[in-house]
Amino acid sequence: MKKPPFTTLVSRAVVLPADDVDTDQIIPARFLKGTQKTGLGQVLFADWRSRPDFPLLQPSAAGAKILVTGNNFGCGSSREHAPWALVDFGFRAVIARSFADIFKGNATKNGLLPVALPEAACVRLELAIKANPALELTVDLDKERVSLPEGGWISFSIDPFAKHCLASGLDELGYILGFADRIKAYEQR
Amino acid sequence: MPRTLFDKIWDAHVVAEEAGRPAVLYIDLHLVHEVTSPQAFAGLAERGLEVHRPDRTVATMDHSIPTNGLPIADDAARTQLRTLAENCAKHGITLYDAESTNRGIVHVIGPELGYTQPGMTVVCGDSHTSTHGAFGALAFGIGTSEVEHVLASQCLLQRKPKTLEVRFEGALREGVSAKDLVLAMCAELGVGGATGHVIEYTGPAIRALDMEGRMTVCNMSIEAGARAGMIAPDETTFAYLRGRPHAPKGAAWNAAIERWRDLRTDEGAQFDRTVIIDATRIAPMITFGTNPGMGIPVTARVPSPDDAGPGERAALAKALLYMGLTAGEPLLGKKVDVVFIGSCTNARISDMRAAAAVMRGKKVAPGVRVLVVPGSQDVKRAAEAEGLHEVFRDAGAEWREPGCSMCIAMNGDMIEPGQYAVSTSNRNFEGRQGKGGRTFLASPETAAAAAITGKVTDARTLVGGAS
C-alpha cells in the first residue's frame, strides 16, 4: 500500500501565527464521528473559520501547500484526523518551531512533512510571506533544506526512517510485517 | 549497568532493531475504542490482513456514546459504535459494548478489570493512554495508522524516547489532591515541556498516592507533552491488582509479583533530565487559560501577559481574550455555569467520593448545571452501593451513564458558547467542551465546591477543618 513519494515541494505558504495549536483546533472532536478518513479538509480549523482574519481562507492563501506556524504544533489528542484534514485541505508540509510527538508521527504516515526550523528562520519566512503572499518556498526533502526568501537555504533535520518512508512512499506496516518470524519467535520465548 | 524503569520495559519489548531504523516494539495490550479504530480496521480489510492477537486486544465504547442511556439518537455515533461492534465480532476481539455491565472509559476499565499490569507495553488510539503508566507499564497514545500496525502485527515502530524524572519531595498538604499535583506540574513544565520524554514520577508524594491518584497523575503526562508517564509498582499497586478479573491468579500471581518487584529504576541509573517539585508547596490548582499548562493556585490572581516572557506573551493574551478574563483578577468568586465531574482523569470511585463529600446535604447553586459521570459501570455500581448517586441527585446534579461525556463534547454532552465550566477533565483547549465554551480544569473537590456555590471556590473553605 504505497503512498505517493514526497520529493521536492515548491509552493506558496500560509502563515498561522500561533503557538501550541492543539489537535482540537485543527479538527474539533464533534467531527470525529465518521468512519472514513476522507473529506475532512472542509472542517479543518472549523471553529476558527468564521474569524474574518483567519489566514487559511484569505484569497492569497488559496492553493498554498505549506503551513508556517509556531511552536508545539499538534499538541493534545492523538487523533490522526488532524493530518488527514490538513492533507485533504491541500497541505503537504508544515513548517513550525516545534511539533508535538504524536502529531509528528501521524503526519509523516500521511505524506505530510513536518519541518522544524529555528525561531529566527521562521520569523524571516513569515515576514517574507507577509510582504509577498505569492512567494514560493522550496522544501527539499532529499537535501533536508528549505529555500530562504533572500536566496540560499536553511537546513532541517528529520528522522532518517521517516524520511526514507516519505521519499519512497514506503509503508511502515509492510516494514513491520517483514519481521513476522521475529515477532513469532518473540511470542514463543 | 543500572537502568531506569523505562529502560527495563523498553529493553524487554524490542523484537528487532536494524541500524538506523526505529525499534520494532512488541505491544502486550492494545486498547481500542470507536473513534480511532474504524479506519484502522478498514485498512486491515483492504490489505486482506487479520488481527494478529485478538487475545491481546480489548475494546470498549466511550467517546461518542451518549451518557443519557440507550437508544442512541445520533445517527453518526450509532454507525460508529455499530462499526466497532462489527469489527470486534469479525476479529474475535472482546468488546465491552453499550449493554455490557463492565463498559466504561477505556482508561478506567483497563486497570479496573486487571488488564493493565506492571511491566507491560500498553497502547491505544488515545493520548490519555499514559494513564496506565501508574502501574509501572509503558503506556502511550498512538494514531490510527499505528492502531492498524498493532492490529496487524502486535508491534509498533518506535524511536527510543528520552527519560525525565519528575520527583515530588515532601508530602501533599491536607486538601490538596493528585489532580492539583499534576496541574502544578503542567504549570511548571508548560504544555510542551516534556515533549520527546517519558516521565517517571518519583518521590514520597507519589508513593503516598493510592492507585487512583497515581492514574490521575499519569493521565495528564501528555498535557505536558510527554510521550508517557510511569510510576514504579509497589505494594499499593499489587494490593490494587490482586483479585481483579484479568490479573494473574494463584501461582501465576506469586510469580508475577516476584517479577514486578524488579520493575524500578536502579540505584545510579541516569535520567536524561530531572525536575524536582516541592509537594509541600502545592495548593489546590485551577487553570485560567486555554491549555493545561496555564494553571494557578485557586486562590491566585490571573497572571498578566506583561509579566510573561516574550515567547509566551501573545499566547497568554490570546488565552485571556478567549476566556473573557482580565489580568490581575482573582478566579475565586468567578461565576460558573456548568460543573463537570468525570473523564479518564477523575471519574473513579475515589473521585466520586471526594465530590460527594463536598456536596453531601447541600444543594447545587441556582442556574448551575452539574453533570456527574462515572468512569465505568463498575464505578457507577460501587458509587450507588454507597448511596453517592443519591447525594448527587439530592443536591440537584445529573447522575449519568459512563462515558467520556463533556470532556470531549462529541456525544451530546457539551457546554454552550461563552459559558464557564469547572471540569475535572484534562483539557481546557478552546472549544474542547463545546464550541465557544470556557473551561477551568480542577480537582473533584474544587469542582464540587463550585457546584454548591455557583462560583470558583476553594473547597477547603467549604468542607471546614481541611485547612
The pLDDT mean of chain B sits at 97
Terminal CA distance of chain A: 31 Å
In the CATH hierarchy, what is the class of chain A?
Alpha Beta
Average predicted confidence as pLDDT of chain A: 96
Describe the structure.
The complex is a heterodimer of chains A (189) and B (467). Chain A is of the alpha/beta class. In chain A, 30% of the residues lie in helices and 17% in strands. Chain A has one domain (8-188): Alpha-Beta Barrel (Aconitase, domain 4). A seven-stranded mixed sheet of chain A has the order 4-3-2-1-5-6-7. In chain B, strand 3 (29-32), helix 2 and strand 4 (57-60) form a beta-alpha-beta unit. Chain B has 467 residues and is α/β, with parallel strands linked by helices. The model of chain B has no long low-confidence stretch (mean pLDDT 97). Chain B has helices spanning 5-13, 38-47, 75-91, 106-112, 144-153, 178-189, 204-207, 211-219, 235-241, 250-260, 310-323, 349-359, 377-385, 388-395, 444-453, 459-463, and strands at 14-16, 23-26, 29-32, 57-60, 94-96, 121-124, 138-141, 155-158, 162-169, 197-202, 228-230, 273-278, 285-287, 295-297, 338-341, 369-372, 398-399, 420-423, 438-441. Chain B has a five-stranded parallel sheet, with helices on one face. In chain B, strands 17-16-15-18-19 form a five-stranded parallel sheet. Chain B has a four-stranded parallel sheet with strand order 11-10-9-12. Helix content of chain B is 33%, strand content 16%. Chain B has 16 helices and 19 strands. The interface between A and B is large, with 48 and 65 residues.
Helix-strand layout with pairing:
The complex is a heterodimer of chains A (189) and B (467).
Chain A: E1 8-16, H1 23-26, E2 66-69, H2 81-89, E3 93-96, H3 101-108, E4 113-116, H4 119-131, E5 136-140, E6 145-147, E7 153-155, H5 160-168, H6 172-177, H7 180-187
Parallel strand pairs in A: 1-2, 2-3, 3-4
Antiparallel strand pairs in A: 1-5, 5-6, 6-7
Chain B: H1 5-13, E1 14-16, E2 23-26, E3 29-32, H2 38-47, E4 57-60, H3 75-91, E5 94-96, H4 106-112, E6 121-124, E7 138-141, H5 144-153, E8 155-158, E9 162-169, H6 178-189, E10 197-202, H7 204-207, H8 211-219, E11 228-230, H9 235-241, H10 250-260, E12 273-278, E13 285-287, E14 295-297, H11 310-323, E15 338-341, H12 349-359, E16 369-372, H13 377-385, H14 388-395, E17 398-399, E18 420-423, E19 438-441, H15 444-453, H16 459-463
Parallel strand pairs in B: 3-4, 3-6, 4-5, 6-7, 9-10, 9-12, 10-11, 15-16, 15-18, 16-17, 18-19
Antiparallel strand pairs in B: 1-2, 2-8, 13-14
